[in-house]
Design a protein that fits this description.
Blueprint lengths: L1 H16 L11 E11 L9 E5 L5 E2 L2 E2 L5 E8 L5 E7 L12 E5 L12 E8 L3 E2 L6
């Protein structure tokens, strides 16, 4: 009887510790850092451009270009092999006029098997330049 009680206790402890538990896909996340410089067609930097992953499950920060057109942002995303990032002029006529939005695709390193907290990997992606055209509106 004593062995049975100890055995049940050991099984209960392993279950409580989460031994070999699977993390549901919706709880898994990938950390993506990306940086770039946003410029106009003449190669001049554009300030005030918003960069954000196009993903309904995005949880993280949106990046905005500084006076040199530089953006650095971090995002916590659901694991995938690629993400779309939208660059959008959110300040209207300020900083050189109105620019049309553009979307680019980022392909980071492949996710790995999730750990006990759902973390599946991270990557730093540097995009040379993102060129925005003036909007006709």
């Amino acid at each position: 009887m004593r062995r049975l009680i100890y055995g049940l206790f050991a099984v209960a402890m392993l279950a409580a510790m989460g031994c070999d538990k699977e993390v549901p896909h919706e709880d898994q996340y990938y950390v993506l850092w990306f940086s770039t410089t946003v410029v106009d067609e003449a190669g001049e930097p554009i300030q005030g451009i918003k960069a954000a992953p196009v993903d309904g499950e995005f949880v993280g920060r949106t990046g905005y270009s500084d006076y040199k057109g530089k953006i650095s942002a971090r995002a916590y995303l659901t694991p995938r092999t690629e993400w779309a990032v939208c660059f959008e002029d959110v300040d209207g006529e300020a900083n050189g006029g109105v620019y049309a939005s553009t979307t680019i695709t980022i392909k980071p390193k492949a996710p790995v098997k999730p750990d006990d907290w759902g973390f599946v990997g991270s990557d730093m992606v540097t995009i040379d330049k993102v060129v925005l055209k003036k909007s006709n509106n």
